[in-house]
Amino acid sequence: MFDTSIKNKRKTRFIIAFFIAFITLLVYIICYLNDFGYMGVPIAMFIAIIASIGSYYNSDKIVLSLNGARPANKEQNQRMVENLEGLCIAAGLPMPKLYIIPDSAPNAFATGRNPEHAVICVTTGLLDKLNDYELEGVLAHELSHIKNYDILLQTIVTILVGFVSVLADFFMRIGFHSSGSRNNDNKNSGAASLIIMLIGLLLVALSPIAATLIQLALSRNREYLADSSAVELTRNPQGLIDALTKISSDPEPLESANRSTASLYICNPFKGKDAKKFINKLFSTHPPIEDRINALKNIH
């Protein structure tokens, strides 16, 4: 777990550096094709750095807001608090903040930038439908994400990819505006506008795919690792096995789920026919529940 946390910190630094370079290059292309001059480049770099810093320090607030979470009342959620306190002692971690999503679908996720600024969020459905052993398994799984620094890496990727998508949309609008305002007889200007629109359309189309592929690469292995780390904490694989079975087989989709943050949840929050389609399985950020359960059964 120590090696994993070190690697995740390195990956986070690399992703932030790549993001700043990518945004700067993108705005340079916009300025070049539109004859805006090059003042946009340092402005773009400044915006990218601010967005990166903001994502680092406020990622948990952004994710919680996107999912409609509210702070948990410790008196009303004493069972969860007591479970989590014992696990934190065993894991040698500080107590994370607790949040609740008022939704009957059982699910949970962890977010934040480090163990000292971590959050575990569960749905009301999870608290209602899981027994103590199953709840303990889910909380241990989320604590493992915190200890491994998965929360930092995954949340930063989620926020920054969303920012790129917004920029791509802005890029495309510039292209449409340019094509409508320039003289149709100016072939060079028309060609530049066409290139801008094509790049914008390409970015808008590819951003969700790129986001999924990045999250795929980061998410699947981390789920297996968090499952096995949870068993190290609880010494009870059956509790997590039963929890995963209940969560995945529950027919209710998570109404407040956001596709950009779906990879953070312990199980895919989207249910129904769409979740069973081959293409959705192929691009799912979560490994199949059957595979995770089989891996847990083979832990000795």
Defining traits:
300 residues; alpha+beta; Zincin-like; 11 helices; 4 strands
Question: Secondary-structure element order, as H and E?
Answer: HHEHEEEHHHHHHHH
Looking at CATH, the homologous superfamily of the largest domain is Metalloproteases ("zincins"), catalytic domain
Q: Figure out the total of helices.
A: 11
N- to C-terminal separation?
Answer: 18 Å
- Flag low-confidence runs: 273-280
Major sheet: 4 strands, mixed
CATH fold label of the largest domain? Zincin-like
Give the total of beta strands: 4
Helix amount, in percent?
55-70%
Q: What gyration radius follows from the Cα positions, in whole Å?
A: 22 Å
* Cα shape: elongated
Please identify, by name, the CATH architecture of the largest domain: 2-Layer Sandwich
- Domain tally: 2
Strand content: 5-15%
**CATH C-level name of the largest domain:** Alpha Beta
Mean model confidence by pLDDT: 78
User: Structural class given helices, strands, pairing?
Assistant: alpha+beta
Q: Give the strand order, joined by hyphens, for the main sheet.
A: 1-2-4-3
Helix and strand topology:
Layout: H1 2-34, H2 40-66, E1 70-71, H3 78-91, E2 97-101, E3 108-112, E4 118-123, H4 124-129, H5 132-147, H6 150-181, H7 187-234, H8 237-249, H9 273-276, H10 278-282, H11 289-297
Parallel strand pairs: 2-4
Antiparallel strand pairs: 1-2, 3-4
Helix pairs in contact: 1-2, 1-6, 2-6, 3-5, 5-7, 5-8, 6-7, 8-11
